[in-house]
Amino acid sequence: MTIKTTKNELFKKYKITPLDVQIKGELNEKDKENIVYYLLYIYELSKNNFKKGSITLSSYSAAIVTDDNSVYFGVNLNNTRNEISSVCAERSALIETYTNKVKEFNETGKFDYKIKYILMNNYINDEAFWSEKITPCADCLAWFNTGAHMQKNTKIISLKKGENGLYLDVLPLETFLPLRNLHYKKPVEINENIKIQKTEAAKTVDIDDSVLLSLYKKTYEVYKNNSLSNTSGQNIAVGIISNGEIFTAKKIDFSKRWFIDPLLTASYKAIEKFGEKTEIKAICCLGDDFTTTETGDKHFEGLINIKSLGRLNTKFANSKTIVLTLMENGLNSACIEDYLPKEFKFIHNYEIK
Ligand SMILES: [Zn+2]
Asked: What's this model's pTM, rounded to 2 decimal places?
């Protein structure tokens, strides 16, 4: 992807000397100049989008740098406020990257690129070409969680202004998705002696093991008896504990891609009953973390629905809500904060608390 404005034009326009930009986190120094350049360029894209495009008056932009040092860009597209008609800048840059790699396939014969950096910026006003508060939303994180071209050391970078001037805030993908790429065990009948492994966060939550075991058992019954997810070959059941009661739901397929998400469905049952007073104390996700492709391969998509977890984390659940799963070494008890960034709170207009 070529940019019409040169590096020097942008550095001059924003009075920046890339050498003076500090780095917070781990980054190869030789990539710094280009990263600053792309971050300024995408600031200009989000400015255009704010003034001419976005209907929501929130304008974001992203650049993706692949391991062959190619760069691709994207901005958020909000057709309406409805979630299906909107796409964030990061995902739009991912599509741009993918499309270009498909086009380049004829020349390169290769399609095994990895994503090195995801750069993010937004428009606040004409003076602030850096960003104070920026983080991927739960929908983008859901893509990053399962994206085949992401790697453990993919970094998410934004330009920030600190007391000592501008710096690049470099965060590994792991910071946002600490439990990415776990492989879960196919649910089985369990007995009372099963071990419950707990993360440090889960150890701080006051909940009896016997309560978690009965949540597992009820969820497992639903999993075992679900025949409505045969289309995708991915059977999932979710149980939740809300206000002292257990609610369960199964995954229901409409097609391979469209389904009713059991996490939100189980939550909805509680919300319908308890309204604003709904408090989700624990979530149990059981099932297959893969779908079967047309060629018969297993494609890992994740058992935990990060998108729904992000929604519940803004209301009815919180960072200390337990997430119970079955792993090779027994039952695993974690908290929402083990799956999503601790301080992550996605609300309207991308504000973060
Ligand atoms: Zn997003």
From this structure: 0.90
